[in-house]
Amino acid sequence: MNSEIFTETHPQWYRDVNPMHYLILGSYPPHPRKRTYPFFYPNAQNRFWKILAELAGLPLEYTRTDAQKAVEEHYHIMQKLHTGVQNLGHKIQRKGQSSLDTDISITEFSDIHTLIRSHPELRRILLPGFSAESSTARLFIRYLQEQHIPFEPVIYKPGKGEAFYAQVNGKRIHCVVLNSTSTASRVPYDEVRDQFRRALDL
C-alpha cells in the first residue's frame, strides 16, 4: 500500500440553501479516483444520498450515468429538505489513496463558523460518524475548541437525539451525533435512515 503523504485542498463544492434549517457536516471526500461525481459524498456506494432522497421523496436517477446531473439532483434534495452539506476539512494530508479517516489528517478547517452565523434560522447540525478519533463528531469538537466556540455537554449517543449544544452568536444550536452512512458501518440502512429522519424533524 502506498504510504506516501499527499496534501489536498477541498474542491469548491459548497452550494448554499435558503432557508437552511439543518446542516450536515462530513469530514473529507475520498480520493479523487474514488469519486463518482464532483459533490459531497461522491462515492456512489455510500448510503448518504440514498437516505436523503428517500426522506425527501425524490428519485436518484443520474448517480452513475451523468455526473453533472447527479450534482443538480443532489442539490435539489438539499433544497427540498432545507439542509446544507459541508465538509470540515479544507486542507488535508492523505496517506496514499486511502479514504479511511485514520489516514486523513485535517491541517486547515473549513470556515464553519461563518457558515453558521450566516444562517440564523439554523436549527440543528448533524454529525454522521462518532467512534474514531478522526470521526466527524470528534473533529467538529476539535474545531469548536480551536475556534473558542462554547459548547456543552458532549454525550456520544448516536441516533438518540442527544449530543451537545454549540453556542454561536448567543444561540444554542443542537448538534446531533448519528451513525455513519458508509457501507463499512455495521448499522443497518433502516436504522441510519430513521436517525436522519428524526434529526431532520420528518
Task: Give a quick set of tags describing it.
alpha/beta, 202 residues, Uracil-DNA Glycosylase, subunit E, globular, 3-stranded antiparallel β-sheet
Quick recap:
This protein is 26% helix and 24% strand. The chain has helices spanning 48-56, 67-81, 112-117, 136-146, 189-199; strands at 5-9, 22-26, 83-87, 89-95, 104-109, 124-128, 151-152, 163-168, 171-178.
Written description of the protein model:
It is a single chain. This protein has 202 residues and is α/β, with parallel strands linked by helices. The chain has a single domain (18-88, 113-199), classed as Uracil-DNA glycosylase-like domain (Uracil-DNA Glycosylase, subunit E, 3-Layer(aba) Sandwich), CATH 3.40.470.10. The chain is built from five helices and nine strands; from the N terminus they run ββααβββαβαβββα. Strands 3-2-6-9-8-7 form a six-stranded mixed β-sheet. Strand 8 (163-168) and strand 9 form a beta hairpin. It starts with a strand and ends with a helix.
Which helices and strands appear, and what pairs or packs with what?
Blueprint: E1 5-9, E2 22-26, H1 48-56, H2 67-81, E3 83-87, E4 89-95, E5 104-109, H3 112-117, E6 124-128, H4 136-146, E7 151-152, E8 163-168, E9 171-178, H5 189-199
Helix pairs in contact: 1-2
- How many helices? The count is 5
CATH topology annotation: Uracil-DNA Glycosylase, subunit E
CATH H-level superfamily title = Uracil-DNA glycosylase-like domain
Shape: globular
Q: State the CATH architecture.
A: 3-Layer(aba) Sandwich
Assign the CATH class: Alpha Beta
Structural class designation:
alpha/beta
Strand order of the largest sheet: 3-2-6-9-8-7
Order of helices and strands: EEHHEEEHEHEEEH
Sheet with most strands: 6 strands, mixed
